[in-house]
Design brief:
- The protein is mainly beta and 383 residues long.
- The chain has 2 domains: 233 residues, Sandwich (Immunoglobulin-like); 82 residues, Immunoglobulins (Immunoglobulin-like).
């Protein structure tokens, strides 16, 4: 699909001529990549080793066959040569943590990392955790694609300065990480925008393993995690909003492997998972990744889980939600006050009391695989 057809099929043009692109305009709609769910007792240790990733099935590996060199001359695609560059990437997550874990394994016949500027072999990652879509780099906030100007930027609002775009928009709703492979004497990554906290603890961590020098061939392992943000403003992390990662959620994610082979030349290959050159500044050109459930070998056949929420403190009314895993056919709730329910998601009003109530609530679930129960001691509180 050429860029004009892609634009007109996925974006609508408003009456004032502005392009309106819904968040679902991800690239490569024919493929959805998978994010492996690590069990909570097997979270990867960030040490530059791939040992923790041995449990991840091969179906989660994304290799060079999925990448295209989008800076190759038109009509002359770059041939994939594993003796020149070979890359494998796995992505993981942990239920309850708003982090994306990455294992990047790459062989290169010439590692370029001796300079202290942006000229460096790079793993460039862009993440849009809430599928908000749209531009994330300052120049794209000042410019909008129109059908008449596909392939060129058409400035529609000159009142928005580059400075305003940078400090108000760049990297705010989706984040771009230029990760140096390896960094040499530089910081491990360049985060586009002024929210530099996004690449440091407690929002990111990283480790490398390699034994080559600049200009040499060899294998590199990069292990890291990052925190996607729905809002990451310049004012600092105190107002930042992390993207909430939940099972089966679809997120926007893509990367490019930027490969230099000459320290004195700007010639490079731009191996791109999105296949759209501008993905680095437009979250609508990312690809879809699904946060997968636990693989069967890590699941219990039946496992009781539940949550609660006070919906009216004055009347001491609490809503309970079953979150059990496995095939469940019956539920038995004990509300800790001598009453119970057989509903899956009951609402319960605790009796009036002059003292605050701390209740021990238990859920027992049964199904073809047997029985499981979970008690939370003094977890439910009402006035």
């Amino acid at each position: 699909m050429n860029s004009l057809r892609k634009f007109t099929s996925l974006c609508l043009l408003s009456v004032v001529g502005f392009a309106v692109c819904p968040a679902w305009t991800l690239d490569r709609p024919d493929v959805t990549f998978k994010v492996f769910q690590f069990p909570p007792d097997k979270i990867p240790r960030i040490d530059g080793s791939d040992d923790d990733w041995a449990m991840v099935p091969e179906s989660y590996t994304i290799g060079m066959d999925q990448l295209e060199d989008t800076e190759a001359p038109a009509g002359h695609p770059t041939a994939r040569d594993p003796m020149d560059m070979d890359v494998k990437v796995k992505v993981g997550w942990v239920k309850g943590l708003n982090r994306l874990y990455f294992l990047y394994e790459a062989y290169d016949n010439y590692w370029d990392f001796s300079r202290l500027d942006l000229h460096n072999d790079i793993f460039e990652v862009v993440i849009d955790g809430d599928l908000s879509g749209g531009p994330l780099i300052d120049i794209y906030h000042r410019d909008v694609w129109t059908p008449e100007a596909v392939g060129a930027l058409a400035n529609i609002d000159p009142r928005v300065s580059r400075s305003d775009a940078y400090f108000s928009f760049q990297g705010v709703h989706a984040q771009n990480y230029h990760i140096f492979t390896p960094p040499g004497d530089k910081d491990w990554a360049m985060a586009w925008g002024c929210a530099q906290y996004t690449k440091d603890l407690p929002y990111a961590n990283h480790a490398y393993r390699y034994n080559f020098k600049p200009g040499e061939a060899g294998k590199l392992i990069l292990e890291f995690w990052i925190t996607p943000f729905d809002y990451a403003g310049c004012e600092g992390p105190q107002r930042a909003v992390e993207s909430v990662l939940t099972e089966n959620k679809l997120i926007g994610l893509s990367w490019a492997v930027i490969d230099y082979d000459d320290v004195n030349s700007n010639k490079r290959h731009f191996w791109n998972l999105s296949h759209q050159q501008q993905f680095f500044g437009n979250a609508s050109e990312l690809v879809g990744f699904r946060l997968m459930p636990l693989e069967p070998q890590f699941r219990k056949a039946i496992d009781a889980h539940w949550s609660w929420q006070v919906i009216d403190m004055e009347s001491r009314t609490v809503a309970f939600k079953d979150q059990s895993a496995g095939q469940v056919s019956a539920w038995k709730w004990d509300f800790g006050d001598g009453t119970g329910s057989n509903d899956q998601n009951p609402t319960h009003r605790y009796p009036p009391s002059e003292r605050p109530g701390n209740y021990t609530v238990m859920l027992t679930v049964t199904g073809p695989a047997g029985e499981s129960r979970l008690s939370k001691v003094w977890s439910v509180h009402v006035r």
